[in-house]
Amino acid sequence: MTKPIEEAYALAKQKYAAIGVDTDTVLEKLSQIKVSLQCWQGDDVLGFMFPDQALTGGISVSGNYPGKATTPAQLRADLDKALSLIPGNHKVNLHAIYVDTDEKIDLDQIEPKHYEKWVQWAKEKGLGLDFNPTCFSHPKSTDGTLSSNDPETQAFWIEHVKRSRKVAAYFGEELNQTCVNNIWIPDGYKDNPIDKMSPRVRLRDALDQCLEEKFDDAHMLDAVEGKLFGIGAESFTTGSNDFYLSYALTRDILWTIDAGHFHPTEDVSDKFTAFLPFGKGLMLHVSRPIRWDSDHVVILDEATTRIGETLVRNDLLDKTFIGMDFFDATINRVAAMVIGARSTLKSLLLGMLSPIETLKDAESTGDFTTRLAVTEEMKSFPFGAVWEFYCQQQNVPAGTEWLTEVKDYEQKILTERK
Ligand SMILES: C[C@H](O)[C@H](O)[C@@H](O)C(=O)CO
Ligand SMILES: [Mn+2]
Fold first, then answer.
1. Would you say 187 and 157 are in contact if contact means Cβ atoms under 8 Å apart?
2. DSSP H helical segments within 137-197, as ranges?
3. Where in the cell is it found (predicted)?
4. Looking at the predicted complex, does its ipTM rise above 0.95?
């Protein structure tokens, strides 16, 4: 422990204690939270199955920063580096295309054995894993996937999603913790469709087939991720947010809320308490949309802060799986992971460091003056001192020192990659 960090924490602790917040308890609580680090930030969403296939599905990565991972071993090394700079014990989120096998297989052939090395690594590092079927960047995804009106194409994707659920359940069993299997498809139309019903009925029925096999909730939970629009599907998204909200509620599965998948002025955090009185639980894709679903690296902006605050203030952490979803190739990809994860954790810490009961009391007695005054004053409380102490406690660099480590890694490892 460095002395200045300890001293600053001692002062901060007193200041928070004066308003009824016990910082030691807060840090203990924060250390229990897992965020799921999306592996696809490490290689621009290419994966190892068809790495030469262009990224499709209306999502896009910009930039060409040197050193992206091109093998599973490289990606794991990058994740190791990133995780060593993020306080706490977390999960890694894989897409199906991140197989680690010498076999030449297609998406409708994946099996748990193709991901064994990921599981072995996760066990060694004490990590959890999440999973996603990859319903894009594939020759069969150009005209729809699960909602395709071509029975052969649709059957291919149903098989892929069924197999993805088996892989997810295998992860959960092996790692003894829930693996979320998140289903997102890019199906939609560039221009106004005439028939808006049939694609959605096909999607509903296809999903019902995918979900037929039952798994233990302790190992695998299904989640469905809606979206407003994608590039090339601006007029109609089959798996829209309303569609999946209804689907998740009626099938008792998780609803995935991606921060970039709504109208820009919507407050995504406001959706948590609209869904959870009825729904099983949420999966979050914490992201940063700039004008569109641009998947910028998460920072501690107002939207992210509101996500953290809402989860904490409303006691939603037990029902919410927190993942991140961004991919930026204009900066060092390992740094991107670290920045996004640290910022997400900071939003949770900020939420925990408020005098929630005092604020709730003020609100329930109609004292909105106190509610506004205290929340504003909290913004200049010594949150940074608590964060730095937490980093130190968790044996990760407290401040920008982590960047020195990433720069060093870049020089020694990333720049050597072809
Ligand atoms: C890789 C994608 O981000 C992802 O699977 C999906 O979650 C999404 O957000 C598409 O916009
Ligand atoms: Mn997403």
1. no
2. 151-175
3. Cytoplasm
4. yes
User: Cα 343 from chain centroid?
Assistant: 13
Whether 258 is in the pocket of ligand 1, judged by its Cβ within 6 Å, is yes
- 118: pLDDT strictly greater than 80: yes
- CA distances, 391 to each of 1, 4, 26, 33 (Å): 10, 14, 13, 14
DSSP 90-103: -EEEEETT----SS
Q: Tokens at residue 252, please?
A: 């008792």
pLDDT reported for residue 51: 87
Catalytic residue among 81, 114, 160, 285: 285
| Any atom of ligand 1 within 6 Å of the Cβ of 325 | yes
Residue 191 · residue 294 · CB < 8 Å = no
**130 in contact with ligand 1, CB cutoff 6 A:** no
Nearest-CA residue for atom 11 of ligand 1: 59
Residue whose C-alpha is closest to residue 93's, from 154, 134, 145? 134
Quick check: is 301 catalytic?
Answer: no
d(CA 8, CA 175): 38
**Is 295 among the annotated ligand-binding positions?**
yes
pLDDT value of residue 418 = 74
Q: What is the pLDDT of residues 238-261, one digit of tens each?
A: 999 999 999 999 999 999 999 999
Q: Decide: pTM greater than 0.95.
A: yes
- Residue 43 Cβ contacting ligand 1 at under 6 Å: no
H helices of 176-256, in order, are: 198-210, 241-251
Instruction: From 223, 316, 222, select the one nearest 269 (Cα to Cα).
Output: 316
- Residues making up the chain, counted from first to last: 418
Q: How far apart are CA 287 and CA 326, in angstroms?
A: 6
Give the tens place of pLDDT for each residue, 307-349: 999 999 999 999 999 999 999 999 999 999 999 999 999 999 9
* Alpha-carbon span 5 to 14, nearest angstrom: 14
Number of neighbouring beta carbons within 10 Å of residue 263: 8
Residue 71 has pLDDT above 90, yes or no: yes
Rg (CA), the chain: 22
pLDDT for 2 equals 79
Res. 1 pLDDT band, cuts 50 70 90? low
Residue nearest atom 8 in ligand 1 by C-alpha distance: 184
Task: State the ligand closest to the CA atom of 230.
Answer: 1
Contact 358, 20 (CB under 8 A): yes
